[in-house]
Amino acid sequence: MRKRFLSLFLIASLCAIAVPAQGEVVLTEPKMKLIKTINGSISPKSVKSSGDGVVSAHNMMYRHSITVYDAKTFELLKTVPDSVSLQKYGFSKSASIFKGSPVEGTFSPDGKYLYVSNYAMYGPGYNKEGHDTCSPASGYDTSFVYRINRSNYEIDAVYPVGSVPKVVEATPDNKYVLVANWCSYTVSVISVDAQKVVKTIKIGRYPRGIAISNDSKRAYVAEMGGNRVHVINLEDFTVTYIPIGSNPRAIVLSPDNTRMYVTMNLSGKVASWDLVANKAGKSVKTGEAARSLAISADGSTMFVVNFKSNTMSKVRTSDMKVLETIRACSEPIGVTYDAPTGNTWVACYKGQIKIYSNN
After folding, report:
1. Nearest CA to 222 among 187, 190, 254?
2. 147 with 192: CB under 8 angstroms?
3. Which of these, 109, 116, 111, lies nearest to 45 by C-alpha position?
């Protein structure tokens, strides 16, 4: 009788844990756990997982560098200066060494290269540094995307793009690299084979986030100064639109490409869009100034950094519910999910990288 009573007691206890009181939220997902804080000479605007063992951080004009870390040990593998000879590549008559300001990065699908956009360039002939409030009429200097060879982590190619380039993404078929030019209101399309810009596509005010379909046929570009996502057909460069709502910033696609998720900076929400039915899905508020987001390898969860709330939120994609929100750091600005380890890396603008386990 006593054994039976204990068994019933344990069952009742477990049920009491599993069944919440009215209005209470129960988290069934594993909680995020801070496992590493990286300090040093960094001021990361963004972080990016290669998917094959490293994570890069892009440190703007404050540090003039790209730092590369081992995704498992968190060891600093390389600090890449943003200094370059533009004369070497035929883009300047000056023999001076120019500096950039790395803002965003992406890895080529074959793993050979890291492409990095530069907010502005510094050196002879560059006299009007870009600004976050601007238009094509502002006349801010144009800039460059660097290609960094991962065999030695040195710059081996540069591509002239628009003014204040930000997000850069490579197509999965390794045919193009797309760059969102914030102040030019354009997207530059770099041909990997031709090694030059082959198309410049007009976008509305402040193009930023870019996501590309698995079949490399469509690119989705957020018009942060408007209320649309531009859908670029990469076969003929025609453009259609998705009316996502005001102030879209960053974009990710579900692994099967049936859904799109977009941070809405002013409202602090993440919006979803059904790409099959071509209609809006659920949205959820995550915090003040939802900036960047990343999605897990299986597409079940997203990680969203909320710049003004100093937090990161974990969102379940099946019902767009916030599972967890943690205080990350002062001004979290970038985030990436490293699939091999299952860890989430957060770029803190004030000079740190935070790494969280999801296990």
Report:
1. 187
2. no
3. 116
Name the amino acid, one letter, at 325.
T
* The pair of three-digit structure tokens given for residue 33, joined into one six-digit string: 């756990």
Provide the token pair at 318.
Answer: 């099946």
pLDDT per position as a tens digit, 282-324: 999 999 999 999 999 999 999 999 999 999 999 999 999 999 9
Centre a 10 Å sphere on the Cβ of residue 298 and count the other Cβ atoms it contains: 10
DSSP state of 338: E
As a whole number of angstroms, the distance between CA 242 and CA 220 comes to 9
d(CA 6, CA 23): 30
Q: Report the run of H or E that residue 80 belongs to, with start and end.
A: strand 76-81
Distance CA 53, CA 72 (A): 7
Task: Provide Rg for the chain, Cα atoms.
Answer: 22
DSSP state of 84: B
Instruction: Give me the phi and psi of 144, to 5 degrees please.
Output: -135, 155
Q: Work out the end-to-end distance of the chain between its first and last CA atoms, rounded to an integer number of angstroms.
A: 39
Nearest 5°: the CA angle 216, 222, 223 is 135
| Ramachandran bin of 358, using left for φ above 0, alpha for ψ from -120 to 50, beta for the remaining angles | alpha
pTM (two decimals) = 0.91
Distance CA 233, CA 90 (A): 31
**Cβ-count burial of 21 within 10 angstroms (0-12 exposed, 13-18 middle, 19+ buried)?**
exposed
Residue with tokens 């649309």: 228
CB 168 within 8 A of CB 115: yes
pLDDT higher than threshold 60 for residue 6: no
Q: Reduced to 3 DSSP states, what percent helix, strand and coil does the chain have, rounded to the nearest 5? A: 10, 50, 45
- What is the tens place of the pLDDT at every residue in 159-182? 999 999 999 999 999 999 999 999
Query: Is the distance from CB of 209 to CB of 187 less than 8 angstroms?
Result: no
What is the mean predicted confidence (pLDDT) over 104-123? 98
CA angle at 270 for the pair 117 and 179, rounded to the nearest 5°: 20
